[in-house]
Records
---
Amino acid sequence: MKTTLHFGRQLFRLAVATALAGLMIGTSLATAQSIPDVPRNRTLISQGWDFHNQVPAPDNFNPYAGVLLHQRNSLHYTVNEALFYTNHNTNELIPWQAEGYTYNDDFTEITIKLRDGVKWSDGEAFDAEDVAFTFGMLKAAAPDLMFSSAIAEWVKSAEIVDPLTVKVTLTKAGPRWAADFLATGQSTRFVVVPKHIWEGQDPMTFGNFDLAKGWPVGTGPFKLVKTDSSSVIYDLRDSWWAADAGVAKALPQVQRVVYVPATQEAMPQLFAGNQIDMGRSIQPGQFEAIRFQNQGLVSWNTDGPVWGAPDGCTFAIRFNTQKAPFDNVALRQAINAAIDRNQVVNLAYEGSVTQAVLPVSSYQGLLDYVDQLSDVPGVAELAAHSPERVAALLEGAGFTKNGDGKWANADGSPLQIELQVAQGDPIGPVLSQQLQNAGFDSLLSVQQGTALTEAMVAGNFQMNVGPHCGSLYDPWQTLEHFHSKYAAAEGESSKNLRAPTRYANPELDAILDRMEQMQPSPANAEYVELVKQATAIFARDLPEISLAEEFHTLVFNATYWTGYPNAENPYVAPYLPWEGFAMVVHNLTPTQP
């Protein structure tokens, strides 16, 4: 293993050095393209977010070719821009290509006002024709193109009102649609493409790549100048509409962005050796170790053990509520009482996360709701670790203890439960031991990530552990994953990876349906009351158990660049694969003169 990792790091170092020198390894896709030298202290090197041994599809920069991941790893903070960004820390909308949007009274129409003066990198004006064309292209390509199915489901039409105005008519009321589809920039990425280039192309096969023509064309401040299997290089353009229009203070000070692929195992030493400036998060213990090697490494917080920032996700035990014995609410409640969240946080996650009892993150937009939930029945009791409550719940439901001191079914047959966890997940052994301590005959099943997901989708599990993501500003965003519409029939596959519990409750459905039709606000007493009612049902029925909030230990290298977002300056969420990371690149200043 040491030899393999060492060899991988050597290849990575060679790739970085080669990219910086403007040379190519192997057969170049851009042999006619020469690029100037840029010093390291004016170059930003990114590993992206996904782990690769080499650049995936280096000749395809179609932002909707999602499997290739260029939009997620480098295009979104270099070439492409968004209509809106969001500072998820404050839930503040950041208008960018557009100035704003308005709804009609029943939330079925959104009028988008574009910003005057936005230009594509080839000098053409960015306007309503481009926006309407992109919506139409995605609708026509459904379900084959990335994001096309969601657009086809929601968008009835996109009409050009004038060169700077687009009216989007929805197929159903969508009070959250504009924020979620146009400004969130996570799993949903609406990237406007230039009509004058894409019209007449097959979006399924169009690679959007021709350096001689300046493709890909975007509105961002960088242009693609070189790409091959070892790296992708973007250089700062001479002009940029946002600087010209005063939306940005000036052109970015980063002169070159280099994307280089890397493996998970190599990440700590790549940061330690100044070979990358940003990339995927690493384990907190690894971060604490490499800080001694490189004093320039920083994270969201200046002190640990909680180094990271919220990301809208919680770690949770998900139950298959269709499968006995977890169709029994009392058993699910007893499992919760057997859990010691303090141990989970400290033993499994090295104290780097915080406890959670509800499936919501600690973004301010959500805390404004959570602060009003203290009187919701059952919520306060969720955090209590109580062997006595375990016994009371199980005995009340007819379970008994056998001669080995293990819980048994009412008929005396063994009560065996299986907990599935992903390979490498530190939470598995901790939870398994806690269940054993509570008298459960618990089997820990460690699986590869793909196998774990497949079992979850197929319903071939009793309970498993994983992140539950969704809520960024509204509790409905995760609570709605417990709607009966996601409860696939036994033997059928789940249709939503975030909704695997197969839980069904018409009472909760009715509340969630009412919430869906309302524009959420923690200041709206009627809406908050619905949040309370839905939360009370969740706390009572526990289709899943929230354990802790997910915090990634993000690493930024301040040896060459400063100005990264942090807890003291939370101007945007610090997650590199989110669209708003463009704000980070715009904000960086050189550490060295």
---
Amino acid sequence: MAAELVRGQNHPLSRNRIEIRISADVPVVAGATLADESGRVRGADGVAHPGAPTLPGIEVSRQAAAEHRLAVDLDAMPETVHRVSVLIALPAAPGGPLRFGALAAPRAAVTGLDGIEVAGYTLAGLDAESAVVALELYRRQAAWKIRAVGQGYAEGLTGLLTDQGLPQAAELARGIEEAVARGLARSVPARTTDTARTTDTARTTDTDRSRRTAASVAGPDLPGTAAAAGSPYDVQAPGDSAGRPSPSDGPVEPEPTPDDGGRPPASGGPDGSAAATSTGGPIDYTHPKRRRASQPPAPEAAAAPADGPAPPVAGDAAGWSMDERLYNQVWGMFEDLARSTAAYRSAVDFAESRMEKELDQVLSDPRSRLGSAGDAAREAAQARQAQLVDQARAALDRDLAQLTAESEVVEPALPPAYARWDNPVWHGYRVPTEPPMAIRLGDLHLPESAPLRIPMLVRLPLERGLWIDGGVPDTSPFEEAGELRHLALQTAVALAARLLAVHPAGEFGVQVIDPAGAGASAFAPLTGAGALDAPPATGAAGVAGVLGRLTERVDLVQMAVRGGAPDALPPGLDTSRQLLIVNDFPHGFDDRAVTQLRYLADEGPDAGVHLLLVADREDAVAYGPLLGPLWRSLMRLTPVPDDHLADPWVGHAWTYEPGLVPPGSQVLQQVLTQVATARTKRM
């Protein structure tokens, strides 16, 4: 049962990976400060806010919104941090600053990654305040606790930050307001007061088996996640965690690791309801994000038949656009498949352990060890095990049937950024005027549900580089490394073409480094259509030239941003986002080039430069540990199906399948031709 706190009350926190959910009547700014044992914040780098949303162990929203989800991983907090203050502020308004007293009381709630509320606090009694410290997470010895604070400030953010001990509070407050002003046009519309009350009284019970959302640092502005960068699937190869903290990490954007202890309990799924799932009725697929009163209305679904669940509807999830609703729906499908499979596996494990225990009891008793009594006892134990497994499989098959039906409706409705290359939507493709919120990198599936594919959508802009592994895995049908490397290049070209296609003309470019010129045939679709910014760079001089230009661009952008003068960039500097494809790495790279590449991998995404390596990690062994951080910073993809991706939520090993163009299809060439034509007209 969730605790409803009053001002000053504290409550123990039994988990360290949590979400903090903020809801208000109007768009508000959400942030957090990290303080030491004395309650002092070390400086501006101890404040998470829309202009700097990520700090170790916490990520906040990048804009003002009526609904916020802050992702928190207390295990990733620096040891010097003893207090995390969650703040809410009203953005500056044209008619002067608002005050909380003129609005319905905002609410802050702490939930687990499964969406179940731990504690909540309604900030009643505010008057002239325009900024308030809502909650406080604080250490007590080795444990963390929650305290309802509700301390308001009529001076707004400046007064709040000054009280936190920041010497340049006014300057930081102005910076936050400027960051909010830049994103205010994208802020989430306000709810009505009646809606707020409805949401505040809603609670999720253990018997509610509707979809719940795991936190993800990947998309802070995404309903249902704490993050971005990401995506519902901020997953990666076992042992290749980038080491960046995240609430879902041991998952995510955090960079997730599969062995973080995030597996479901022995009873089953992440919420402990696996036993009921494996033997009970069909799962209710009414998604909380689709039906919560505080969320924007979703399209009306067809009436449910009397003898079964409602037929699936594409876009039947919360969101302010169809793209966002489809993105959230795909995320919900991913969660459902993960939960149903976890419940099935847990039920099977329970059946096996129960049978082994019963057989041990039979064998330990000399009277029943031999003879007909022993045989009967063994047969009975095996029959009970088979019955439990059959029940679990029936429940899983029922869930898979519903998910398959949903997939059959959703897949044809996906926009180009989310669609497979064989989707008819590409035949009506036109160069977009706005970039999408996410992009499809391929498909994911589990062994128990091999026919069902879940799109692997990742938020844009990419916050991690990609690495397409050209090595030959043990399960590969290819005997020759050259054949697999060519397929890896085709995968890279398909990804580059998709990124070009989903961005407005001139806002995204692709550059290629191919030191030995070995990938000329694979890059032909890009070069032939004129979609590249320049021909692929070859030789030592070509490698040095491209890396030098991109490194300089990142340096200039960083200096301009840090200096507060983003408009002071050189007039000839191309500020469009760039994807750098590097083939056959590390061949043709000297130590200086390797250092520049590592710099681009770490610093490039924030300056609009993204990295895509096509390489075999085994080829880099000669460099020793030098390249270890580079590999760990990239998300590894494979040109053939491979189960190297892991979700830290329930610990499944997901099989990834690349999004390749069907053999013989001309869709890639047609799309690239349109992209190149639009780029030419814009120049």
